[in-house]
Every structure is written in C-alpha cells, then in structure tokens.
Amino acid sequence: MSHPAPTQAAETQPPAKRPLGGWMGYLLLAPAALWLTLFFIVPMASMVSTSLYDPTGSLESGYAMTGHVQNYLTVLADYSEQFLRSLMYAGAATIACIILGYPLAYAIAFKAGRWKNLMLVAVIAPFFTSFLIRTLSWQLILGDQAWVADTLRSLQILGENGRLLDTPVAVVTGLTYNFLPFMVLPLYTSLEKIDPRLHEAGADLYASPFTTFRKVTLPLSAPGLVAGTLLTFIPAAGDYINVELLGNPQTQMIGNVIQNLFDGGSYPEAAALSVTLMAVIVVLVLLYIRKAGTEELV
Amino acid sequence: MTDTSPRTTGPGAGEAVGAASGNAVAGGADLVLTGVTKRFTDFVAVDNLDLTVPQGSFFALLGPSGCGKTTTLRMVAGLETPTEGEIRLAGQDITHLKPYRRPVNTVFQSYALFPHLTIFENVAFGLRRQGKPDVDAAVAAMLDLVELSDLASRRPAQLSGGQQQRVALARALINRPQVLLLDEPLGALDLKLRRQMQIELKRIQTDVGITFVHVTHDQEEAMTMADTVAVMNRGVIEQMGAPMDLYEHPMTTFVANFLGQSNLIGGRVLGSDGADLEVEVHGTRLRVPRSRGAQDTGEVWVGIRPEKVQVCAPGSADDGPRSRLAGGVITDASFIGVSTQYLARMPWGQELMAFEQNTGAHEQFRVGDHVELRWVPEHTFLLDADQDANAGVERVDEG
Amino acid sequence: MTTVASGRSSIGKWIGDHLIMGIGLLVLLYMFTPIFIVVLMSFNDPASRIGYSFDGFTLHNWLNPCEPNGMCDAVVLSVQIGLAATLGATFLGTLMAFALVRHRFRGRAVANVFTFLPMASPEIVMGSSLLALFVTAGFAGVLGFWTILVAHIMFCLSFVVVTVKARLAGLDPRLEQAAMDLYANEWQTFRRVTLPLVFPGILAAALLSFSLSFDDFIITNLNSGQAVTFPMYVWGANQRGIPPQINVIGTAMFLIALITVLAGELGRRRRG
Question: What does pTM read for this prediction?
C-alpha cells in the first residue's frame, strides 16, 4: 500500500466518487453545521454585539446598542493585569507541559515496545476521573501540612512559613497537570510517525544522540509540538477553575474576571473581555493553520 | 506515437487483431472498447482508444505509470465513467452500468481485501451479495483451488503477501465473471514469488477459460503471461500483438525501448532493390528487408537489439551475410554471468550496446580493443526518424 | 578514536534506553498522583466536614455512596445528559465527517475551520456567549437539562468530527470499490464495508463525547439554571465541605472507564 510512486497513486486514486452528486455532501453536513452555527457562531457574533452595548443597562431593563467601543478600553485598562497574568500562567504551564510531556511521548513512541498501548491508556486514564475531583486532590497534595511543602521547607527552598497552596506555583502546577495529556497525545502522534531507522541514519551521520535528536527528531515532531502547544495554551489561558481551587484573589486570571463579571451582571464588559480573548486565540489558530498547512505539504 | 493506432501497426500486430476478430465471431463474448476517452480536469488519461479483447484470451495492457492503463481498466470495471466512447461486453453496452451490475471482477492492486472479514467471508462476499445458493460449498471449493482451505478462518492481516494475492484472486474468480481484471496483481510480491505466481496465474487462466485483462508496467510479466500485449503510452496504444511480434518487430521507438533495449542509429533510405531497402548509416551502406521497415523512405532510425549484435575483430570471417559497422572501440565490458555486455563507441560518437552469450564460442574483448559490429540483416528494423530515440527508455520502476 | 566514539554512543544509548523511559514513568506517576489521592480519600473517615485530610480508614463511603444530599441525583443527571449528548453529537458529527471526507463541495475548507474553532475556544467564552444567546432569546426561565444538552452536543461535535474523520481518511477507497465490484450496491457497500471499518472511530468518538460531557463544568455551570450536574455538585461541595463519597464516585468512574478501555483492547487483540 505504501510503495506506489506518486504518479501511480494519482492514477489509481482519482478524485473521490460522488455517487449521489454534490448535494449529498451538503445534506450530510447540514445538521451539524446548523447546530454549530446556531449554538457557536451566532452566540459568538451576538457576543461581539453585546460587547458594544452601553454598559449602564442591565439584563432586566435591557441594553442600548450604542457601539460603545469604550468597553474594550475600559476592560483593558481595568483588567490588563489579569490578562497578562493569564498569558504568563498559561505560557508557564505550556512550557512545563513540553518539558514533562516530550520525554513521556518520546518514551511511549520509541522505548515502550509492547507496553505502548498500556502507557497510552495510562496517559488518558486520569481523564476518567472528574477533573474537579482531581484538582481538589491537588489541594491536599500541595496543602500546608502535606509532605511536599514540609520537604521543601526543610530543604530551605520554601521559607519558614512558606506555602504552596494558594500561590502562583500551585495554579501553574494545576494547569500543567490538567492539560498535560493534550500535550502528550499530539506529540506522541507525530513522534510515532517517525521511522526509527531515521534515528539510526542520524546516528550514522551525526554520531551524537543529542545532535540526532536536534537535527532529526525535533523537526519531525514539530507539528505535534505546535498542536500540543495550542491545545494546552488556549484552554489554560481561559481557565478559572485552577485559580479558584488552588490560587488566591491575587492570582486571578482572565477567566475568573469574565466569570465574575457575568455573575455580577456586567454583560457588556464581560463580552468585551471574551471577544478580546477570542481574538488573541483566533490569531494564534490562524498562525497554526498556516504552519500546519505548509508542513503537511512537506 | 501520434498516428499509431492499433489498426496501423504492421503485419505482426495485424495478425493478432485478425486472430482476435476470428475469435469474436466464434465466441461472441469479446470485450470491445470503441473511441473511449477519459478526460480528468487537467489531463487526458485515455485518448480515443479502440480495443478488442477476444473472449478467453489473456490480454496485457503494458505501459509506464500514468500511461492510462489503469484508467482503462477502471472504466471496464465501472469505477470510472468514460468521457466519450462505448464499452461493450458480449454485445451489451456496459459503458454506464454500475460496477455491481457488470459481469466483471477485479483483482485490485495491493488486493483491497476486507480487513474486518475472514478469508472465507472475503471469498464469499460476491456470492452473498448476489444471493446465490450453496455459498459455503462454492467457497470451500474455491479455497481448495487456491490451496488456502486451512486459512479460511484467518483474517487478511494474518496472511503473507502471496497468500493475500491468492485470496484476492479467489474472491474475484468465484463469481465466474466474463472478464477478470488484474491491476498490477503481482506488484507487491518479491521477485521469486512473482515468477511463481506468474506461472500459477497463467495455469488458472487456462483452466477456467475466463478472459483476463492484466494491467502491468513490468514488460517481462506481460510477455510471460499474456497471449496479446498492448503497449500503452500517453493514453494511446502504441502497438499491440503477440509478445514475440512486439519484441522482434517494434513499430515505434517507444516500444523498441520500453520492451527490452534497442540500439537506434540515425540513417537514410537511399532506395530499394527488390525485397531489400538500401540504408546509409554514417557512411556505411546496409541492406534491410523491406518487411522490416515501419518506414521505407527518407530519414529513419535503424534499430538492432543488443543481443543480436556480434562483436568481432576487424576483418574476421563470417558464416553468412552480415550487416557490418566498422571502427568501434570497446569502452565498457561487463561480465554478468550468462553474457558479457559491451559498449562500443562508434566513429560518429554514439555508444552501441552488444550482449554476447558466454557460450565460449566468441572472442572476449577488453576496453580499448578495436572491433566491428555485425548482425544478420533480417534482425534490423527501421523506425520513423521523427520520433524521439529515447522514448520509453527511462521508465519508472515501481517494483 | 573508535573506542571513544563507541564509548560515547553506548552511553548515549544507555541514556536513550533508560533515562528517557525513567523520566516518562515519573511523569506518569505525576499524572496518577491525584488518582491515588482520590482512591485513598474514598476510604476516608473524616474527623470534620471542613478539613480535607485522611483521618481514618472506613468502608462506609463505599457502602453508602448516596448518603450526601443530592449527590446521586447529580450523578444521574450527568449520566442522562452524557448519554443524550453522546448520541446527538456522535450522530451529527459522523454525518459531518462523512461529508468532509467523502464529498467535494464549495465551502469545505470553511467547514473544516469551523469544526476546529470550538476546540480552540476557551470554555468560558463559549459558555458565556451561549448563555447570552439563551437569555436574549428569552430562554432564561427554562435553563436546565435542555440548554445543557444543547451546549454539550455543540462542544462534543468537533471532537467527534475530528475522530471519525481521521478514521475515515485512513480508509482505503479501494475497499469500497472492491465491494462495488463484488456486486454490493451503494447501501450494501456502506452497510457491509464502510460502516464496520469506520465503527471503531465512531465508538472512540462516542466514548470521548461521554467523558467530555460528564466532566464539563464551566459551560454547564453557566447554562444550567437550577439543574445540578455532578461536577457542579463537586464545585458546590468545595465551598461547603467535601463528602468522601465524591471520591467514591470518582474512583468508580475511573474503574468503569478503565475496564471498558482494557476490555476493548483485549477484544481487539483477540480478533487480531
């Protein structure tokens, strides 16, 4: 199945058959597309319009559509600190996920042998327990009385009354933990496609395993790294659970702000913040698609 | 290759077509393609193809990748619809019939066995879909024929390549199609197994008497198995005929180079002398039987197969009439067991090939030796000089 | 020279073979640590309702899983929503995957991007915008089971499409052509060849949908009205004091899912 030359493949696999004509595609697509339009696209669009409402109204009395662009300036002025913090925490968690996830994905792809499937199941298995429960157990692990904090205190890494819980470290630890599988799985997928013989060829040509890794493995796993980074960074940047359970009011992220604004009924500001967050993410996704698109051609 | 439709392909091919139409009258179940064209958005895969495959024959479509042979096969199978033209089987127009309504079955490239079904169910698939009775007995008999009875409950992934190939054959043959199509059926097998399967396929075809249409890019495979070979290039049939006719009497430079190898030397027809043409080749006059010429006036390619060329010391004696080209210098001599392959540079700069059998009857030459190349005049062939002398030389080898 | 080179490469080899595996296992340990805690805490006999520490061993929680007020109702609601969302998302998503892989039509690229976007959107944005829509459309009073279901189908859809699409794209088109060649009409080809071969992908998508739905908190919390799903119950309990039975449910979920996956893997191996 793998051997036909490109020209032969073109000859034996002409364009997909359309036994029922083009409209069949639309028919199959329609229900899901309708659902996504109604409950994803339309809300997003209405979110944009909400973000331009006059913030002095309320749900009960209604809002006036005034094209109130100032909402954006207001929220950026008021919450830029949380915005930057979100990006920093999410960035730190993403880097931690790469540092932890890459060796794990590499070990599964090349070193696990017959244990490969079992290790893959092990990566996904923690998913099976509700993530709130898992995050709650980090409260226990990072708690002031737990041995982790004790050990760090006795090693003088943490001060006499130093804490782990309710600190940025705890939040980033929680974020890292919760989104690690989203890093490991795409990385594994792209590492697994690499022919192990390339390592031997690399070893043959470059001799040093590190150089082989840098020149052969790393570039070839780049698509997985990009996908994993996005899948980790985006949800982490929008998360508020970890701050709520493991952090303190001084570690609030943009998700907490949006949630609080919604709870407080400040819909236009909340919408403006959401749109800003979404815009940053769309830019990231478009960059990703461009990158992935060109790499698929190679 | 512009004007070489099968109908204008000289005596050898003419005989094959003649024999075919004789069969057609007797059998009446021929596969006939008339003016078939297949255009994709950006290229023409098959161009105005006329073809008759006589009932019961083993027919090979031979050509390089992208020549249109697989597209032709897929149109016969119903997996592709011709842009123009008509396909008839046993007189019935099947051009637009769905694949499952045609008495035609296919052995796919890399087999396309159903991975989720057992070997037994793979073979039974066609009969079950047709609602035929006694499926179990028929499948058992067919598995017996291809010697896979003890693997009936396995799944395709558990079989070797050769076994999978036999399952694919059994799965198609059990339906007793009027035509069996084989798309590079041996392409995925190693050389040894391929030879074995070639013989086996030929035997099965003779036994069941079903028309086989076999698509391949492997000239040896086509010549070994098929009664008739059609050489395709760029969507048209260059030449068609029995393997030996094609080899001994190529009508185009493409066929001369794609089927085996040829020396093609530029020359000019000076005139005729009864049964012979007189040709001038770089100052040397050669005689070529008129029947060996695809062209009998003007500029020509003078062709000679390397194994027909004798390498001789200048001035040595002959045991009969020979065409001679003098002034060669050996530039390469490769001993490869059964033969020695020479390259000789001629005075006009061209290197000609000569393969000498290692019978011990010939003198061995070394690089730098001065030699004369000789061959029996009847082995010469003449081709139209407008064609590219290198057509068909660099073929893509996917094996 | 050679000895140096081979010495270096053998050290490199040892590092490659053992160190990386060791790090990998440590990372796995990190991923499992909270699970150990959850299992441990499911046997906890808490001294007080406020503290969250291991005070003593008991089987009481396992024998009386539904003791905490409303918890099992929340679990039942989550299972109901999970099943319904799985059914809906798997059906719609599978159709869409077929459309995207098997059919060429205008706007296909756009459709591909749109399926990717929900996966790349923060839940808080999706949840809040959906809530805003429901409120604007006058559904503020009926927030509950149906609005949660609508939201869950929406965010599960993309994952189904991606999963089934991957499976479908890996399907050799010659298999379906072979079926047609062997007298199977369009429906029989779909029923006998396409569907059985794509089914593992559909099943995986369904399992994924259920776990995403069962576990979702952020979007659900915004669109639930008075309804309380299991993650919402856990959230509320965090403020009130966590009953150890929550860990019983967590452990049970983990075991059920693990057994399902391992049984599937075993079955796959047996069939070869």
Answer: 0.78
